[in-house]
Amino acid sequence: MDALTRRALGTVPRPADWGARLRWLADRHGGRVAVILVVAYTLYASSVLGFTPARFWVGLTHGGVFLGRLFPPDFATRWSDIQFDMLESVEIAVLASVVGIAASLPMGLLGARNLMPAWITWPVRGVISVCRSFHPVIVGIVFVKAIGFGPLAGVLTLAVASVGFIGKLFTEAVEEISLKQVEAVRATGASFPNVLIFGVLPQVTARFVGFSTYQLDSNLRNSTILGIVGAGGIGGTLFAAFQRFDYNIVCAIVVIIVALIMVGEIVSEQVRKLFQ
Amino acid sequence: MNPVTLDIRDLTKAYTRHEPVLRGVTVTLDSEGITAVIGPSGAGKSTLLRCINRLVEPSSGQVLFKGVDLTRLHGQALREARRRIGMVFQEFNLVERLSVIENLLSGRLGYLAPWRAWLRKFSESDIQRAFDLLERLGLGDFGAKRADALSGGQRQRVGIGRALMQDPELLLADEPTSSLDPKTSVEIMETMAGLARERHIPVIVNMHDVALAQRFADRMIGMTDGRIVFDGAPDRLTTEVLASIYGGEAWMH
User: What ipTM was assigned to the predicted interfaces of this complex?
Assistant: First the structure.
């Protein structure tokens, strides 16, 4: 390295000055250091978790056996249980979506900083972000402990998740509307509710419907897992079948879940088209 | 004696302190005719209009509309005053995802309970008037179209229609032709001036196009730097006056 480059890069700080030395290191070699750290951590984590090629190979062999035992799917043996719990999952998902969507509409409007004063938006945004903070399974466990086993806990869990998702995205959608259109409606002497109905909602309805149908999709998916923590639906039966090694029944349930979710996606796609 | 339509007294507005946009505007407006406000960008024309219907809060001064000081009104009283004042915007400001007829009818929102607005239950006479007006504006076939499917000139016609649906006693137009081509601009001015004259509604219109303003206005007001520097008939607007409004003469040649 010639003298000029050395000067451009700055002199290496004295070894005693660790803060400066680290900063110098980050400035000069930041990218390389980051890569080295990530690689080192990955190696460390694999060794701790036993994530080795040999272990992976053993797992694959297991997997083959497991896959073989899944087939053929057995719809018949526990058909009435599967049917009942599947319907319960759908009911949980739909009910939770309706409650969650109904709650998200006012909350989304109240949380929008371009329409509401800070003393309203702050608490509302707080509630929405708390709803978003936890995975549905955790919220499910809390509700099961709080109000007991059964589908009610599942409904509340997914309603909370719906408020978290739709509430946040809807608030953002409202904050992006054209205020010129709102101003014009305001100029006609319209009351605040009328400004919302004619100036704000038309601008965000399509997006709100989009978020809602997406959430319905997501609630359908999540309603199939809540049974594992005792919050109702097909998850309980699925979990029980796993524990009894009834893999043919597991397979039947998985097939039905996949079919259900595909139907859900088709339905929500149609609803979205209706509101475009 | 009836009070004049509009009596603005020593109106000031500063968005940020020590940088007033309006520096004491005093002007009265009679019950009819078209008043064009011209002046360079930033002279405070838009702010002046918006201080009248309080889309912008004035800092001080009075705006007497038929004898009532609008600057002191709040809530319901302010909304009732607003619905007597129509406004037309530079960028039309239609609610784009609503139909043309809904946009026209939104001029009646000041008279509508929210549940009726939600269900679009406008009175039969309002709906009849909206369709008549649509016909008058030459948009008879466009009622069910979405507003964002219209051309600029058509949109501005809807904008004028919305303002007229209010049955206003005063019409404010903030550069209604600045987003339009020259030919459409003339047509829009003809439409607006014609309908306003026919209904005896006084109009205040901000304009950038001086020649177009002269062609339609009964009275011209020139603003510079937040003050009124000219107020008189369009034919009194000489080269010297224009130079004093816009600063310098070089741009005219």
Answer: 0.90
